[in-house]
Amino acid sequence: TQLLEQSPQFLSIQEGENLTVYCNSSSVFSSLQWYRQEPGEGPVLLVTVVTGGEVKKLKRLTFQFGDARKDSSLHITAAQPGDTGLYLCAGANTNAGKSTFGDGTTLTVKP
Amino acid sequence: GAVVSQHPSRVICKSGTSVKIECRSLDFQATTMFWYRQFPKKSLMLMATSNEGSKATYEQGVEKDKFLINHASLTLSTLTVTSAHPEDSSFYICSARDLDPASGNTIYFGEGSWLTVV
Description:
Oligomer: heterodimer
Order of helices and strands of chain A: EEEEEEEEEEE
Shape of chain B: globular
Helix content of chain B: under 10%
Distance between the termini of chain B: 37 Å
Strand content of chain A: over 45%
Number of strands of chain B: 11
Radius of gyration of chain B: 14 Å
Shape of chain A: globular
Number of helices of chain B: 0
């Protein structure tokens, strides 16, 4: 069974601070996705990373896929209250139908 | 981009009745869809994998006779909660995998359905 450990589980910071969320596994994934979910809504895809060592930027968000494709990180610069939400990482494997999800990180950015 | 639509977004039903939730892939075909249950501030719990034209694959501990899944076409999967009880009240989310290689094997989610059993 593939497992993804996501940390931290909860994070509460002030507006303007930086933060990093980690997603680690002992398994290799062919791709990894990051999602953001607001209460009462379905998760929204932020990014897909597929190449070991890949770095993708989405405005103030920076996503990195580990060289061995076993881990990933999400870094947010100068967090804003609008970044508040549940962040989920999910590892996909082309040989299997389902993705493995991390436990999620609940981020609260206080104004 | 790929879109997955879920309906209804909110439903209230009486104990003992059944309720159906639909999941549609709007601009791509999905041979496989997934149904999740989510509790407040928690991650997604996979209930079952819906396979077009064949039986669904249920995760351990999920009652297949209570959560009926039908995937009759390449764009539609349904989840029917039978003989619903208050403990079935939850947020149910579906997703579908876009097999287009350009998407990186990405899963797209529906908007979710709030089920309240009274």
